[in-house]
Amino acid sequence: MNGTMSDATSDAVIEVRDVCYTYMRGTPLARQALTDVNVRINRGELVAIIGRTGSGKSTLIQHFNGLLKPDSGHVLVGGRDIWRKGVALRDIRRQVGLVFQYPEHQLFEETVVADIAFAPRNMGMSQANVDEAVREAMRVVDLDYDALCDRSPFELSGGQKRRVAIAGVLAMRPEVLVLDEPTAGMDPRGREEVLGEIRQLHEAHGYTIVLVSHSMEDVARFAERLVVMDGGTVAMEGSAREVFRRREELVNMGLGVPQVTALMAELAARGLPSTEDVITVDEALRALLPALLGASGRANEGEREGEVGA
Asked: Which run of H or of E encompasses 66?
């Protein structure tokens, strides 16, 4: 590997190579958080990072845009080692936008527009470009500019506050959006609202999305690929279907599978013709419907035979 790290894979927007990180390094309270971690995020993907609390998820994503510097190893963004001399972290943080857990706690300006404009203005955008970026970011997350521009962000619903916080990152025009537990603490309506917007950002607007989540149901529905963290290392990765087939390993890590996957496995164990590969409710309905319709048809036929016999 040469000094310029020019061997980065062309379709990889973020690469983490052999990264180790220790909190409070060199003190009696030192704690190894990441050990020889290798992760690749391809351009245009929607990747979910899952793992129990303390597995290293949040530590890992803070390396993606240089908020944390590895003890060893390399982090590449767009093929550039972000810690190499001459690479401006300011540019990296515009390219990789990070939305922290409970982002509404970071809202502080008097109006929605002022809050969304804060980051791009501090990044040195001209006022005209800031205004354009704010309007575009609000449109992308389905916030009505005219209705909300002068409103206080603290007057909005939980879902709207999250979308204002996301818009504040989008206004910097990143290529990658990293979201740490974006639906934490939300009611079902707000949760669906925010998840729907994330799906739109990916499918309609082409953002590369990295989603950190504790919800196996959410990642089963939305993620194209899962990275499973355990004890500061990558324990497994693959499609949601591939990962959730390894149910016993996940349970041993303190995780699990979507509830519908567990249900279908139980039904299969009881002899119902189904599949353990089901990971969403829609898939379960499609798998169960033929059996349910068949049972219903047999019941109706039995009733008709009973009427004839009578």
From this structure: none
**pTM of the full predicted structure?**
0.86
pLDDT tens sequence for the chain (310 residues): 333 444 445 689 999 999 999 999 999 999 999 999 999 999 999 999 999 999 999 999 999 999 999 999 999 999 999 999 999 999 999 999 999 988 888 899 999 999 999 999 988 899 999 999 999 999 999 999 999 999 999 999 988 999 999 999 999 999 999 999 999 888 888 888 889 999 999 999 999 999 999 899 999 999 999 999 999 999 999 999 999 999 999 999 999 999 998 888 888 888 776 666 889 888 888 888 876 676 554 545 555 555 555 5
**Residue ranges of the domains in the chain?**
12-257, 258-310
CATH of domain 12-257: 3.40.50.300
